[in-house]
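DOMAIN: structural biology
WANTED: fold as tokens
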Amino acid sequence: MAGQYDYIENNLLKIKQKISRVCSQCERDPKDIYLIAVSKTFPADAIASALDYNQLDFGENRVQELLDKEPAFRDRIMHWHLIGHLQTNKVKFIVPFVFLVHSLDSLKLAQKIQTEAAKADKKIKCLIQVNTSGEDQKSGCDPKYTLKLVKEISQFENIKVKGLMTVGKMMENEKDSAEREIVRGNFRQLKSLFEEIKGHSIPGVDMKYLSMGMTSDYDIAIEEGSNMLRIGSAIFGKRD
């Protein structure tokens, strides 16, 4: 297996250079951008390779895949992010080790996280996922109910709301300026919500992270204020 994933170092360097370039164009500090390597479908060896090059944050979409990979890294310093939809019956499995849940989108799910986190005597950091694109197949809270949901979840002692997450509208053609403007609108809406909720100074809520932007649209996300990017194929390569 040695050497099979050496290309990851080069990809990490390239993506960091590109992030720096976009940041300098919009007068932001690249140090403010938190990079999550989305390792879904890639084996533990690929993750280990990225870890060796000081990438410490990894995102997984599926709980089962995360549970399969996690034991191999218990002796390493790293952070696991659950970025995909979380079913209530899977919550108990990730509570012991997850660093950040990006996909909290309902009171029902929050109640389950609270129950399992209290049992384990853990505080679970979560982002509220918002459906800014209006696509039916996407998870996420309706933007108009997001503030209400944050206020409700803020009452839970074992959940720490740390910000918001969204997935921009999927683009057919990533170079199409009209499609890119739609995505920009999605990100702008989340940033506006983020600032609105921050302005309410809700006790127990720390609006720290704005998780938006993936391989196809992270430049737009940075321009619109994202400080947490979820990058998969630009780091690990194309998925099968």
Observations:
- The chain has one domain: 7-236.
- Strands lie at 34-38, 57-60, 79-82, 100-104, 124-129, 159-165, 205-211, 228-231.
